[in-house]
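Re: beginner question about structure tokens

> Can someone show what the tokenized structure looks like for a real chain? I only ever see the sequence side.

Sure, here's an example I had lying around. Input first:
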Amino acid sequence: MKHTQKMRNSSVELLRVISMLMVVAHHFVVHNLDNAWDINGNGSRFLIAVFAAPLGKISIVSFFAVTAWFLCEKESGFRVSFQRVWKMELQVLFYAWGMCILFVIFDRKLLNVSTILKSFFPVSTDLWWYVTSYILFLLLFPFLNKGLYLLGKQYHLYLCLVTIVVWGGDSRSFTKWIHGFGE
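And the corresponding structure tokens:
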């Protein structure tokens, strides 16, 4: 049996790394306990705040798209997808239960019924929105992948263009733009 080594696409991997860094920068600025605008400094924090906040939203979409790109290159049956979901569920349970145990040990005032329920059912209670979204995507992926292949290149392109037009920008400005043609 001949084993061929798969070539890595470093430009796509670089986009994934840049997207991860932008997500971290976004969380550093937007979801930090300290307000980014209140910290004294030489102005670099201001520049990070101005650029990191909006780029974080873009990078989430970019990171997800690159992840989907890599998934499309692999086997995409329902069984494989379900195995990925199960593996991720176990990892999420490990961290959710670990954090719940840390609350019990160090800070019981943060522990309540909601926290305990979310720790035992992290995906279904949407404890971490990205994980829940990704697991839903993994469950739908075999069907989406098959459908996109059956669609063909031309209709796939049309689908991408319609999706970008409908959800790619601010819908209110798009509606104003469309109504501007009627005048």
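Each token stands for a local structural state, so reading them left to right follows the chain. The chain has a mean pLDDT of 78.
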